[in-house]
Amino acid sequence: MNINLELYHTFYVVAKTGSISASSNILYISQPAITLQIKKLEETLEVSLFTRTKHGVILTEEGKIFFDYVKMGIDSITNGENALSNLKNLESGIIRIGASTTVCKHVLMPYLEKFHEKYPKIEIEIINNLTTNLLKELRNGNLDILILNMPMNETKDLKIIPIQDVHDIFVGNKKYYNLTKGKIDLKDLGQYPLIFQKLPSNTRAFLNKYLKENKIDLKPQLEVVSYNLIMDLVSAGFGIGYATKEFIKEELASEKLYEIKVTPPIPKRFIGIAIIEQKTPNYSVQKLIEMMKKRPN
Predict the structure, then answer these.
(1) For the chain, how big is the Rg over CA atoms in Å?
(2) Quick one: angle between helices 5-17 and 20-27, nearest 10?
(3) Which distant-in-sequence residues (6+ apart) come within 8 Å of 52 by Cβ?
(4) DSSP labels for the chain?
(5) Whether the Cβ atoms of residue 254 and residue 260 lie closer than 8 Å to each other
(6) Any idea what the Cα angle at residue 253 is, between residues 247 and 259, rounded to 5°?
(7) Would you say the C-alpha torsion 250, 251, 255, 259 has a positive or negative sign?
(8) What is the mean pLDDT of the chain?
(9) d(CA 274, CA 281)
(10) Cys-Cys crosslink for 99: which of 21, 103, 122, 254, Cβ 3.0 to 4.6 Å?
(11) What distance in Å separates the CA atoms of residue 68 and residue 64, rounded to the nearest whole number?
(12) How far apart are the C-alpha atoms of 279 and 277, rounded to whole Å?
């Protein structure tokens, strides 16, 4: 049965007020128009919904039964409108974010701190894993956004939003800094023990591409999954590591680690937000993305 929802709403208001004239004031339509709408609804349902009295209208037994169902529908619509209003006002909602531990710590946290301070009722769920696994979760609908090192392959179905430039460097402790005098030709790095992240890390893939473009083949002595562990090993003197400068500012400032400049220089890259191209993010996610497109204060 295809019935105009306006008729249901008119019936609901009349039933609640018990008065055509009062309903006219609420609905801002004339009394004859309301009477006509009620008549049309009764004809469609083939049942009498109201009994007319000199004091107004009262529901028939059939009308009472029908009213209970209409009320549930109206209440559900009202609740839906309230829920949407809460989401738009960021009074409720959830954001599911995928990020590596390193990106989470050095990139995501300043934004999340600011976002949580402004919208404390929004629930935030963070999933840490390898980028390849997080991409699967994003494509399966289990994540709203993914924060990751760029560039990467296979982004046809993704929209990538750049948020921060980063610069990769080689680093060592004081011993290796002195041995290299703080600078070295890329081809000469192989004479020292090297510590790189394992594939399929985007950082390692970017390093491999840089080496290939310069026709250099470097064999690391150690390959480690954890970025932080690499920095610990470098600091302890196990060799020269590959790092992101923006992530080790404190270590460089305290001279726990030293930058070893290479020739040719390593190209810069960026951190980006990945979302599914054909999917519109919910209002909370949109607000976080807007915030992350700006530098945190």
Answers:
(1) 32
(2) 130
(3) none
(4) ----HHHHHHHHHHHHHS-HHHHHHHHTS-HHHHHHHHHHHHHHHTS--EEEETTEEEE-HHHHHHHHHHHHHHHHHHHHHHHHHHHHTTSS-EEEEEE-HHHIIIIIHHHHHHHHHH-TTSEEEEE---HHHHHHHHHTTS-SEEEEEE--S--TTEEEEEEEEE-EEEEE-HHHHHHHTTEEEGGGGGGS-EEEEPTT-HHHHHHHHHHHHTT-----SEEES-HHHHHHHHHTTS-EEEEEGGG-HHHHHTTSSEEEEEESPPPPEEEEEEEETTSPPPHHHHHHHHHHTS---
(5) no
(6) 70
(7) negative
(8) 90
(9) 11
(10) 103
(11) 6
(12) 6
Task: Copy the structure tokens of residue 141.
Answer: 């609908």
Sequence letter at residue 184: I
Distance CA 279, CA 158 (A): 10
Judge whether residue 129 has pLDDT over 80: yes
Q: How many residues does the chain have?
A: 297
Structure token pair of residue 234? 């470098």
Supply the pTM of this predicted model: 0.68
The tally of CA atoms less than 13 A away on the side-chain side of residue 199 is 7
Q: For 79, phi and psi rounded to 5 degrees?
A: -65, -40
pLDDT at position 87 is 67
Closest CA to 271 of 180, 182, 123, 164: 164
Residue 277 confidence class, pLDDT cut points 50, 70, 90: confident
pLDDT per position as a tens digit, 211-261: 999 999 999 999 998 899 999 999 999 999 999 999 999 999 999 999 999
Residue 74 — very low, low, confident or very high, per pLDDT cuts 50/70/90?
A: confident
d(CA 235, CA 237): 5
For residues 231 and 115, give the distance between their C-alpha atoms in angstroms, rounded to a whole number: 30
Q: What is the pLDDT of residues 94-114, one digit of tens each?
A: 889 999 888 999 999 999 999
Residue-level pLDDT at 84: 74
Residue with token string 């519109």: 280
